[in-house]
Amino acid sequence: MKKKLAVMVFAALAGSIISGYATAQSAIVQNGGNIHFQGSLTDGPCAVQGVEDNGRMVILQQVETRYLTTPGEPAGQVKLFHIILNDCNTSVYTNVQVSFNGQTDATFKSVLVNSATTGAAEHVGLQLYGPDGEKIIPNDSSAIVLKSGFNTIPLTIDYVPTGLKPTAGNVESLVTFNIIY
Description:
Elements: H1 2-24, E1 47-51, E2 79-88, E3 95-101, E4 111-112, E5 124-129, E6 141-145, E7 149-161, E8 176-180
């Protein structure tokens, strides 16, 4: 009994000494930031690689407001980007539908609203154009013919004034694109 008590007292003292040392020499913890992991699985005939090599962000060049003179008419400052589909199996599907879903302007239904939250430009939105150069109507779908293997879908986007005298500022829009088999 005395031996057990001595061992317990020794263990308690040793623990106190070690924890005191650890407290005196506490580690410095630096927040390295967040890591967002996202993935998905598909049972469709193609894997969506994304938009070019930027993941899913298209950066438009800065444009002067003087190019935005007529409401509903594009600025003529188009930005080309591509949606890439890999490893397509045309024995399963030869055509797909592509849709872009997002919030549109109340007057110009094919123009995506400017959703910038800070320093937003006013009276301007963004217009998507398909491989044929025609306007893409958000929340609708368009047919694309697939070829086996690698497919690139070229698209463009441009600034469009949605009112008189657009103001300078940030322009952002968010769309969800879907490949429908």
